[in-house]
Description:
- By secondary structure, this protein is an alpha/beta fold.
- It has 10 helices and 15 strands.
- The protein has a 9-stranded mixed beta sheet with strand order 2-3-7-4-6-5-9-10-11, sandwiched between helices.
- Magnesium ion is lined by residues 134-135, 143.
Amino acid sequence: MAQIGTDITHAKQLLEAGNVVAIPTETVYGLAANALNRDAIVKVFEAKNRPSFDPLIVHVPSKGAALDLADSIPKKAEQLMDAFWPGPLTLVLPKKDVIPDLCTSGLKTVGLRVPNLPLTLELLETLDYPLAAPSANPFGYVSPTTAQHVNDQLGEKLPYILDGGPTTVGLESTIVGFVDDDPIVYRLGGISVEDLESVVGSLKVELNTSSNPKAPGMLKSHYSPSVPLFLGDISKNSAKHQTKKAGVLSFSGIEVDCAHQAVLSKAGNMNEAAANLFRHLRSFEGMELDVILAEEVPDEGLGRAINDRLRRASC
Length: 315
Ligand code: TXA
Ligand code: MG
């Protein structure tokens, strides 16, 4: 198992030597390596069992550091940086040559983000290179929101997990790219579309779905728990699956006869619901359930991102 701790100097030494280290962010934990070191990047893909065509996000400590890695930055990109960095927003921008093609899976663009967590910002500031980091889960699994989640699944492959406590946002970053300088949302995440629009005006959302398989930013079946998840009216689905051992995941609580119930937010608070989503999905995995029955949350603000993850996790 990996060592878990808060020692930035140790994390730095390991990264300098070309190792992969798990790091916390405000969204989910990442599997980090020197983004300028090809050998280290290969280790990230291997540890996750991630296909080489799925590019990595590059983490930097500041807007200034991001500007050093990107070319021709649209005005709206800078407005979004100023409004939401540090924070759960990844901007896909034309990359400079210093970023290896391996990191971006051959794309001429790079996803850049400044995470909003003091421990990780401090680490990034002490390094003289950015950190490439996908979410620290095996490919196709839900993202980890605690150091222990990372250890459970990838501990044997990692020397160290930097522990920043449970993540506060709990959903991955929102990914925004640009076509002719117009922003397009490729992945719903920790910054809502409404918040983005309050800064740059109305924007397009082009998610990767079965009807739109080409949009970058997310593979369709990216968030699958190992127990089949049925999304919809919980009471109806519960009647259908009566003979099976079920876990129920509701938004703010529901009257249903089931021993294994998890509530995203009793108060109906969307931030709390987002922070709890992956934790609850994982807790169901340890219970030897036959099915998970879940319902959508109100489809607004962060609720859109929560529903997106639930739909991708469902059968
Ligand atoms: O919150 C997050 O974004 C977390 C934390 C660790 O920062 N990271 C994360 O990384 O979720 P990952 O690799 O699990 O998801 C990043 C997504 C991938 O689906 C990838 O396809 C997309 O971002 N992506 C990365 N670079 C891209 C690019 N240049 N163009 C389009 N999509 C890109
Ligand atoms: Mg991921």
